[in-house]
Design goal:
- The two termini are 30 Å apart.
- This protein is elongated.
- The chain has 239 residues and is mostly helical.
- The chain has a domain of 163 residues.
- Helix 3 packs antiparallel against helix 5.
C-alpha cells in the first residue's frame, strides 16, 4: 500500500497542485468582467492549460540528457521573475506610502500614465508566474525532493497571495482608478486607500518569500541519481 501511495504521488503530485491552482486563478481573473459565462470560461481555460502544460513538461522531461537543464532553467526563470515582481512592487509602495499624506499625489500614481505602466508590468510578470513559470518549475523539479519541498511551499505562498489579490486588491484598485486624481476625497475613501497601501506591504512580504524560496531551490544541487530516476513502478527507459 505504501508503494502504491508513493507511486501515485510521484506521478500525479504536480497535477494535484497545478491544475486546481490555475483553475481557481482562471476563474478569479475573469470575475472583474461581471459575467458568469466569462468566469466559467476562465476556470475551464485554467483546467485545460494545467493539464496541457503538465503533459508537455512530462514529454520534454522524457529525455534524460535534458532533464537537469530543464529543471535548472525553470527554477532560474521563476527566481528571476519573482525577484523583478518584488522589486517593482517595493518601488511603487515606497512612492504610494510617501504620498499618503497628500491623497491627490497617491491617486495620481495609480492613474495613467504611471498606473497604466506599472499595471502592465505587474500583470505581465504575474501572468507568467501564475500560468507558466511556477507550474513548469513544479513539473520539471518534482523528482528532486529537496527542491520539490521548497517549490511546493513557494507555489502555495504565491497562489494564496494571488487569491487574496483577486478578491481584495484588484476590485479596490479598479475603484480607486475610477476616481479623479483632483478629488474630492472623503475621509472614508482616504482611510480605505491607506489600508489598501498598508496591506500591500504585507502582500509584498509574500512576493519576497516566494522569491527567497526559489533562490534557495536554485542553490540545491541536482543529484543525477535523483533527477534521472523514474518514479517507483514506472518502467525504466532504454539505456
Amino acid at each position: 500500500m505504501s508503494t502504491m501511495k508513493t507511486t501515485l504521488w510521484d506521478r500525479r503530485g504536480p497535477f494535484l497542485i497545478v491544475v486546481p491552482a490555475i483553475t481557481v486563478i482562471g476563474a478569479l481573473g475573469t470575475i472583474a468582467l461581471g459575467s458568469v459565462t466569462a468566469t466559467v470560461f476562465g476556470a475551464v481555460a485554467g483546467l485545460g492549460w494545467g493539464l496541457l502544460l503538465g503533459f508537455v513538461a512530462m514529454r520534454l522531461a522524457q529525455s534524460e540528457s535534458r532533464r537537469p537543464a530543464l529543471a535548472n532553467a525553470s527554477v532560474f526563470l521563476a527566481a528571476l521573475c519573482s525577484g523583478m515582481l518584488a522589486g517593482g512592487a517595493l518601488l511603487v509602495l515606497m512612492l504610494l506610502s510617501a504620498g499618503l499624506s497628500t491623497p491627490s499625489t497617491s491617486f495620481t500614481i495609480v492613474h495613467p500614465p504611471f498606473g497604466a505602466s506599472f499595471n502592465l508590468f505587474i500583470i505581465t510578470l504575474n501572468s507568467l508566474m501564475e500560468w507558466l513559470l511556477i507550474p513548469a518549475a513544479l513539473f520539471l523539479n518534482w523528482r528532486i525532493p529537496k527542491r520539490r519541498t521548497l517549490i511546493v511551499t513557494a507555489a502555495l505562498v504565491y497562489y494564496a497571495m494571488r487569491v487574496w489579490t483577486y478578491v481584495y486588491f484588484v476590485p479596490n484598485i479598479f475603484e480607486f482608478g475610477a476616481i479623479s486624481p483632483e478629488g474630492p476625497f472623503s475621509a472614508e475613501l482616504v482611510e480605505r486607500f491607506r489600508l489598501w497601501v498598508n496591506l500591500s506591504w504585507l502582500r509584498l512580504g509574500f512576493d519576497v518569500s516566494t522569491n527567497v524560496l526559489f533562490l534557495l531551490a536554485a542553490f540545491v544541487p541536482i543529484s543525477p541519481n535523483r533527477v534521472l530516476r523514474k518514479p517507483a513502478g514506472e518502467k525504466a527507459g532504454k539505456k
